[in-house]
Amino acid sequence: MNYKIVNIHSSGNRSILIIYTGGTFGMVQDESGALIPFNFGRVVERVPVLKNLGIKLTVISFPIPIDSSNIGIQDWKNMAYIIEENYAQYDGFVILHGTDTMAYSSSVLSYMLKGLNKPVILTGAQIPIGSLRSDARENLIGALEVASTEQKGIPRISEVCLYFNYKLLKGNRVQKLRSSTFAAFESENYPALAEVGIEIKFNDSVLKKYDPEANLKVLAALDPNVSLLKLFPGIPKHLVFAVLSDSKTKGVVLETFGSGNTMKFEWFINALKAATEQGKYILNVSQCVGGEVQQGKYETSRMLNEIGILSGNNITTEAAITKMMLVLGTQTNKDKIRSILASPIAGEMD
Ligand code: ASP
Predict the structure, then answer these.
(1) Residue range 219-236: average pLDDT?
(2) How many domains does the chain have?
């Protein structure tokens, strides 16, 4: 890929690479009034303070910045490869990304960047940087400050996170919950890693521990043959059958009610059973934002254990879909795949 590199004439002890992928952060209006992404060179003009943060900054921009609704597997690989290629030269990485799919990207990167020992912080904005009341400047500066924080030469953060509206959240626990307030993201099932006010308050007990022995290894094999089936009362049989019997689909994230409950109609249970018997992996994830799946708590979830449905416990849908892509792309042993799907690999579930 033909990346554009923008050097910001800044200096300091810590060095951060900003990866600009697009998103509202740097958008402008086209002739019709719709928002489209523009090049990062002009973003720097909007935030002159970047030169005086005391951090050495470089920006690598996607050749064509994108709205994150267009993000795909190749883009995730590109982000991971940029980090891998530049890993030794920088103390941390800030990814500027659209908010719509940022939680998917932060989840998948937490799995792909195995052995990560430096901060990778995704951020973006709800209002473009050129607008008067934009949140872009605050989000970028906050993310850069967090990414550059160290203690005795050791980075305070050594994992993939998402920084937004003064909160640092664990990358594979976060969800976009609101589209029209600045507080767009929450991680309902995991405490904030840090809160940024007058001071930055890190919540040390929930941060990933820095591992001096860890070496970065990018896991780039992602299998796209996964599906998402969200249940609703009255769901038609043909829809359930279409998803569960699709011949290419290898794994299905099943979004269930409450603490992991489904309808117990015979046709439905038989369809799930047939899918697991065909070798498909089905991971039970709750539609609720907070709480967890407890298969067997109610009669309406007890049979799921018997037919081989895996419990996703308190994983988010974003973290579940992307985990399935990675596990199916990197593993072949059936028992191993089942056990990895049902247990945490990067702190994405309890
Ligand atoms: N559609 C935009 C995107 O995700 C929204 C945003 O950045 O807030 O790229």
Answers:
(1) 98
(2) 2
